[in-house]
Amino acid sequence: MDDPRGFLAQFTEGAIIDEVQRVPDLLSYLQGVIDDEPVPGRWILTGSQDLSLLESVSQSLAGRTAVHHLLPLSRGEVVRFDRYPATLEETLLAGTYPPVFDRGLEPADWFRSYVATYLERDVRSINNVGDLTTFQRFVELCAGRTAQLVNYSSLANDCGVSQPTAKAWLSILETCFLVFRLPAFHANIRKRLVKMPKLHFYDTGLVCWLLDIRTPGQLRSHPLRGAIFETWVVSEIMKHRTNHGDLWGLSFYRDRNGAEVDLIIEQRSRRTLVEAKSAETAASNLFAGAQRVQRHLARSNRPDSLAVVYGGDHLQHRTSGWLVPWHGLHEAGFWKKEH
Fold first, then answer.
1. pLDDT surpassing 70 at residue 49
2. 175 lies in some domain
3. Most confident of the following: 59-63, 225-229, 268-272
């Protein structure tokens, strides 16, 4: 930018500057403008790369900014649109990016353009990605491993890259808010707990597109349907808690004996064990896995409640815990912030 002072002087009331990480030099000039008139909310800076944006902001605007992560839409936001997906399969396929609903676009068409643009625009600006074809293959392999333990060796071998490269590329996906790593639960209990994190995508529509799943019928019979549903449940709760400022307190439990629960929500007065089951039939055996983990954690001073989010339609309270229909997850109270 040839004239940063002149550019900023145009906006006497402030402005929204998008992709600000592309013009890091502008921020040093913005610092002076903010110091002269420190009105909160006058300047809003956005960017699609968390790491680059934070580096730029921290160098010039330390102590003058508040950072917020704007994730894809939650189900509670999606249902505010006039036309939103009504069935579980349609919901998983459509994903949660605003243009699909705001503009009435076909999800597959939008994701095709999004992936191409993302690779061309964002990834090319990151120095340690040289082979975009191999990187896209890496992203597809990650989609096939959603809701699974992160295994760098397996990812690297299947993609034909080194383990350090696989780790660096996964960090890029996190930086661009495509994926997140759900940490393993740790506690002083007499169990050998798995320590590796689980990989989840923020958007199941992107997962389906990367896996070449294009129709509800394909998804209904796909071997990864359960994993995709688990990712949807975990990402929904992650989005809600992030939007309310709860950035911590989520993990999963798995020990060496096979006891496992998809999500543990830590709160001040309680801990909730959550299972995601894509089955449509409400049955008591859906609680079996969570009950096993509950017994392992029984010596803890914090009481554990159980919730199973399933593919059916009816909310039920059973002796074991809550059966929550997928379409009612955004209205359920078991994961919400305590006041």
1. no
2. yes
3. 225-229
> Same structural domain for residues 94 and 207?
yes
Q: Is residue 127 part of a domain?
A: yes
Instruction: Using alpha carbons, list the distances in angstroms from residue 200 to 14, 173, 186, 236, 281.
Output: 37, 11, 19, 11, 25
143-172 pLDDT, tens per residue? 999 999 999 999 999 999 999 999 989 988
Rounded to whole angstroms, the Cα distance separating 222 from 241 reads 30
What was the pLDDT predicted at 302?
A: 66
Q: How many domains does the chain have?
A: 2
The 3 state secondary structure assigned to the chain is: CCCHHHHHHCCCCCEEECCHHHCHHHHHHHHHHHHHCCCCCCEEECCCCHHHHHHHHHHHCCCCCCCCCCCCCCHHHHCCCCCCCCCHHHHHHHCCCHHHHHCCCCHHHHHHHHHHHHHHHHHHHCCCCCCHHHHHHHHHHHHCCCCEECCHHHHHHHHCCCHHHHHHHHHHHHHCCCEEEECECCCCCCCCECCCCEEEECCHHHHHHHCCCCCHHHHHCCCCHHHHHHHHHHHHHHHHHHHCCCCCCEEEEEECCCCEEEEEEECCCCEEEEEEECCCCCCHHHHHHHHHHHHHCCCCCCCEEEEEEECCCCCEECCCCEEEEHHHHHHCCCCCCCC
Predicted TM-score (pTM) of the model is: 0.89
For tokens 């071997």, name the residue.
Answer: 223
